[in-house]
Amino acid sequence: MFPQRLDAPQAFDIAKAMLDGFNRHYRLFRAESARAKHRFETADWHGQQRAQRERIEFYDLRVKECVRRLDKEFNAGALPMVVWHQVKLHYIGLMVNHLRPELAETFFNSVTTKILHRTHFHNDFIFVWPAVSTEYIESEDPGARPTYRAYYPAGDGLHQAVADIIEQFALQRPFADLRRDVDCVVRAMQQQLGAAKLRSNFQIQVLTSLFFRNKGAYVVGKLINGFTELPFALPILHGEQGTLVIDAALFGENDLQMLFSFARAYFMVDMEIPSAYVQFLATLMPRKRRAELYISLGLAKQGKTLFYRDFLHHLRYSSDQFRIAPGIKGMVMLVFDLPSFPYVFKLIKDHFPAPKDTTREQVKAKYLLVKQHDRVGRMADTLEYSLVAFPRDRFSDELIAEIQKHAPSQLEISDRDGDGRQEVIISHLYIERRMIPLNIHLQECLDAGLDEPESASALEHAVLEYGNAIKDLVAANIFPGDMLWKNFGMTRNGKVVFYDYDEIEYLTDCNFRRVPAPRCEEDELSGEIWWPVRPHDVFPETFGPFLLGNDAVRAAFMRHHADLLDVDFWQSHKERIQAGHVYDVFPYDSTRRFGGVPLPTQPPGDIT
User: Fold this and answer.
1) pLDDT for 58-105, tens place per residue?
2) What are phi and psi of 175, to 5 degrees?
3) Other Cβ atoms closer than 10 A to 116
4) What is the pLDDT of residue 525?
5) Residue 203 backbone phi and psi in degrees, to 5
6) What is the 3-state secondary structure of 301-359?
7) CA–CA separation, 425 and 431 (whole Å)
8) 328 is in an annotated binding site
9) In 3D, which of 529, 531, 481, 538 has the Cα closest to residue 511?
10) What are phi and psi of 586, to 5 degrees?
11) Is 327 annotated as a binding residue?
12) Looking at CB atoms within 10 Å, which of 285, 550, 563, 597 has the fewest?
């Protein structure tokens, strides 16, 4: 129980120090995010990628700073629990008028769990559940920028409204032809509106900060007409002459889902009130969890907090058991899932059989590389947790035996909270969105019979997407290493995503070689590799026997991606990246680009 009186003199000072630590973190986080606009305007693509990577580390650095301060000034680890009760109450009081209370609560948790014993990781001492509402938060600063602006085309027309939207961002680089781009956007909007009558509330609401990622800046908003709300995003890119162009118009929840995918790098957005941005985005993508929205905005720790709350809620209202995940078992990771929950749980095994030659620390480094790298829509993001507790009665005995066999160092079964309930405690865990393993998807297509048009089309699409995924990874300077089908998954939107990271390398670290000509008949007939192989050597010609054993799969692959078996494909991309080229990888199909398939010119509706 919380104390009825706040009588510990140091409790307020500790709470204030913790909030100061959070405020410093967000000030630096926001400043780095705001600088993305200048990097975009100056085409500093390498700087943009570097900033996206380095910003991920900000949070942990500020947490460590705060822990050191509390230890030095208050000897925090030796304080009695009654003081920590009061610290939390004072902290709640300090957040009453805070613009980012949910982030401040998570920062409090991160600091406190570095100081207190895990038996105190419950709501008396940390924010297991939120204490301060984030609804309707507004800044009282007269100069504060609103979260979004509304534009009403009924006055000056749709063309003028779209032009005003673009111009209010005040980009310090000219457009090649803004009038032309606005015409394209207006035609696309009119096509979406169709013959619908324009109601009195017809308006365009647009978030007031651009969303920056890699080489693009995105306008994000929604069209409102009557009872209909239509999400949209406008990608702004640098054209061939260095001037700006609006490259496409994306509409609807599915397009926005792809733009905010868990397999893409985090956006850089200058947000005064993050919860208001998340609230707006949630109206555009109601199927996307708020945890995922926070993560996509670079607020990964807040995403982890919300994810864990969602998970605890799901456990309370479900009754199925955790099990070994379906599919071919991996050599490095042990994977389990809860059938009713759309995620998988992965832990690193204690020992790896031959031919795997790696260590736990090397595997963790690969996952960190993916976290910090541009994932170009083709590598699944992971949530990393330590000391995760699950109810023992939700684990099948088979799964417990599997963990005890392959990762005993990661397993503890105990009543750590002393409440009489046994828990399974996993020391270190990665959590990913569940996908259908590509080898299972292909087998389902084959089992259904390729004489069925639907099955044949699904197989063709899967093989096409598989090759596209590899090519997108190549564009991002990533060589996946183990390219077997089982290491890729199919998302609910039909995208193929890579998720096995223990053998990935930077493309520029690989040596792409041709298989040498046989020296003699014995070499030609040998079933073993007879030529010398050095570390990081890759022989693209040898991919075929491992990947293309099925005739139908091979035929589809050769139709679309025969170049992946050619060393020249890999070497040419490596050389361009080494020369400093940054490839464009679009989060939408090329046919959506205004420079691609022309849009219809007939203007439905009556506002132009």
Assistant:
1) 999 999 999 999 999 999 999 999 999 999 999 999 999 999 999 999
2) -85, 145
3) 17
4) 63
5) -160, 165
6) HHHHHHHHHHHHHHHHCCCCCEEECCCCCCCCEEEEECCCCCEEEEEECCCCCCCCCCC
7) 15
8) yes
9) 538
10) -90, 140
11) yes
12) 597
Q: Assign 3-class secondary structure to 543-598.
A: HHHHHCCCHHHHHHHHHHHHHHHCHHHHHHHHHHHHCCCCCCCCCCCHHHECCCCC
Catalytic pick among 247, 255, 270, 381: 381
CB atoms within 10 A of CB 133: 10
| 146 labeled binding residue | no
64 carries a ligand binding annotation: no
Cα R_g (the chain), whole angstroms: 27
Residues 6+ apart with CB under 8 A from 94: 15, 16, 19
The secondary structure of 430-475, three-state, reads EEEECCEEHHHHHHHHHHHCCCCHHHHHHHHHHHHHHHHHHHHHHH
Region of residue 477 (left: phi > 0; alpha: psi -120 to 50; beta: else): left
Q: What does each C-alpha distance from 110 to 59, 211, 367 come to in angstroms?
A: 10, 27, 21
Per-residue pLDDT at 418? 74
CB environment 165-195: b (16+ within 10 A), e (fewer): bbeeeeeeeebeebeebbbbbbbbbbbbbee
| Chain mean position to CA 134 | 23
Q: How far apart are CA 407 and CA 227, in angstroms?
A: 54
The pLDDT of residue 35:
97
- Say whether 381 is catalytic: yes
Q: How many CB atoms lie within 10 A of CB 205?
A: 17
Tokens 């019979």 belong to which residue? 449
Rounded Cα distance, 565 and 548, in Å = 11
Residue 117's nearest CA partner among 68, 88, 79, 61 is 79
The amino acid at residue 414 is S
* Predicted pLDDT of residue 242: 87
Q: Which amino acid is at 531?
A: W
Q: 205 forms bridges with which residues in the sheet?
A: 150, 222
Note the Cα 396 to chain centre separation in Å.
30
In the structure encoding, which two tokens stand for residue 533, read together?
């192989």
Burial of 236 (0-12, 13-18, 19+ CB in 10 A): buried
Under-70 pLDDT residues of the chain = 1-4, 522-528, 530, 596-608
Q: Could you give the 3-state DSSP secondary structure of residue 200?
A: coil
- Spatial distance between the Cα atoms of 244 and 238, rounded to a whole number of angstroms: 5
pLDDT value of residue 119: 78
Is 379 assigned a ligand-binding role in the annotation?
Answer: no
Q: Please state, as a whole number, how many other Cβ atoms lie within 10 Å of the Cβ of residue 142.
A: 5
Contact partners, residue 116, CB within 8 Å, separation at least 6: 84, 125, 126
Element housing 61 (H / E): helix 58-74
CA distance 100 to 123: 20
471 assigned ligand-binding residue: no
Residue with tokens 């490095």: 332
> Residues 457-462: contacts with CB within 8 Å, 24+ apart?
459/552, 459/553, 459/556, 460/556, 461/494, 462/438, 462/490, 462/496
Alpha carbon of 501 to those of 330, 393, 498: distances in Å?
11, 31, 8
As a whole number of angstroms, the distance between CA 369 and CA 269 comes to 22
For residue range 555-602, list pLDDT tens digits in order.
999 999 999 999 999 999 999 999 998 888 889 988 899 975 444 443
